[in-house]
Structure to design on (410 residues):
């Protein structure tokens, strides 16, 4: 009997550890836990469930809970299984932050999860993928223009939440009846966007890191192409779109800094007049406040780089009808034109591995080249032998010299 109890306890501890590993995206750091006033009793508890869902509950039974405990909470109907992620006085602050989502009356925490509760939860979770595949087939048979992206079973298995994506309004009343008859559970439909779907699926971005929507982002803000224009990014849809086929969320991360920096340089629509030429805006280094002007509006010609302060000075002179002799300040020499860096080998290209290696054509030419190299080597060998023979004749006395030497000795 004692062995069976110990086995159940060990199994529950293992399952609880497995439960805690699943999702850490919604974790909140409790920065008030070390303060003395946080030790006061507070019955509010934050509980996190699968994926991007968490809720707030009341500990009316005054259970001794700690962060990380697996609990059974009140649901409609039945109960759900989740993990305690936050306690204390920080919970009301989090509720105030999400006030629009939690205006309803808070539900209760029933108890700490038992081994049977966790076992039912694992059985229900194991059916989620097969349920999603079958539900997609049912929606296709009904001719509904929607995509079911994920399915989440309640902890007791009596309810299933179907997350779907649709461009237009979908009448899924018939779908709910068919799904309820097929899976014998209560059905709840929730519509999500493509960004939320990418966050649920996860993946690696072109930066080499985990997707922001999957790693830490919970609130999604619309992204416009103007964010790319402010940062002077090429409007290439293949480079600007993420895995959700929408504009990347990271385009909004630095756009405010670019907008503030652009206010400190002249507008690109303003032309600078000198006595010799009219200069048009060509490019700008926003943060270093260096602007390059060209004498031609369409192509780079006679490029001159000046700082933003000098550009504002010339604009003020032009407004008063004064044209300076040149753009540079007096005593400032024009910098030589520097050749920009060129990636010759293509090592910085993100698509350098996409191009298949082309097979070399013209085998006959290769054979001719091989024959030419063979002939050159053969000629080089003959020349080497000829040179060796010349060196031998140079250091070896001839027969005539030998006979003359013999005669002189006699």
């Amino acid at each position: 009997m004692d062995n069976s109890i110990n086995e159940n306890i060990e199994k529950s501890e293992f399952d609880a550890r497995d439960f805690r590993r699943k999702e850490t995206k919604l974790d909140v750091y409790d920065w008030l836990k070390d303060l003395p006033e946080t030790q006061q009793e507070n019955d509010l508890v934050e509980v996190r469930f699968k994926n991007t869902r968490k809720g707030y509950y009341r500990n009316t039974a005054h259970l001794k809970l700690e962060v990380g405990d697996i609990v059974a909470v009140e649901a409609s109907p039945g109960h759900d299984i989740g993990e305690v992620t936050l306690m204390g006085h920080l919970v009301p602050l989090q509720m105030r932050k999400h006030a629009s989502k939690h205006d309803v009356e808070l539900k209760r925490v029933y108890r700490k999860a038992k081994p049977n509760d966790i076992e039912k939860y694992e059985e229900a979770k194991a059916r989620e993928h097969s349920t999603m595949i079958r539900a997609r087939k049912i929606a296709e048979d009904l001719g509904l223009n929607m995509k079911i992206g994920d399915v989440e079973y309640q902890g007791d298995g009596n309810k299933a939440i179907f997350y779907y994506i649709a461009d237009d309004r979908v009448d899924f009343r018939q779908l709910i009846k068919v799904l309820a008859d097929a899976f014998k559970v209560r059905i709840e439909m929730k519509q999500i966007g493509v960004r939320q779907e990418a966050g649920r699926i996860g993946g690696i971005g072109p930066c080499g890191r985990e997707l922001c929507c999957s790693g830490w982002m919970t609130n999604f803000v619309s992204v416009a192409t103007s964010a790319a224009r402010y940062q002077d990014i090429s409007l290439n849809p293949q480079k600007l779109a993420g895995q959700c086929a929408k504009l990347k969320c990271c385009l909004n991360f630095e756009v405010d800094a670019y907008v503030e920096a652009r206010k400190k340089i002249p507008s690109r629509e303003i032309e600078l007049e000198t006595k010799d030429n009219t200069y048009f805006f060509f490019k700008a280094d926003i943060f270093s406040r260096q602007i390059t002007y060209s004498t031609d509006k369409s192509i780079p010609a006679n490029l001159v780089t000046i700082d933003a302060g000098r550009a504002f000075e010339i604009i003020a002179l032009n407004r008063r009808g004064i044209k300076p002799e040149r753009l540079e300040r007096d005593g400032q020499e024009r910098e030589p034109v520097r050749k920009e860096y060129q990636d010759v080998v293509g090592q910085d290209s993100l698509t350098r591995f996409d191009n298949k290696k082309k097979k070399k054509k013209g085998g006959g030419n290769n054979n001719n080249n091989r024959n030419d190299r063979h002939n050159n080597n053969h000629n080089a060998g003959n020349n080497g032998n000829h040179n060796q023979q010349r060196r031998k004749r140079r250091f070896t006395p001839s027969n005539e010299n030998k006979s003359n030497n013999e005669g002189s000795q006699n």
In short: The CA atoms of residues 46 and 56 lie 5 Å apart.
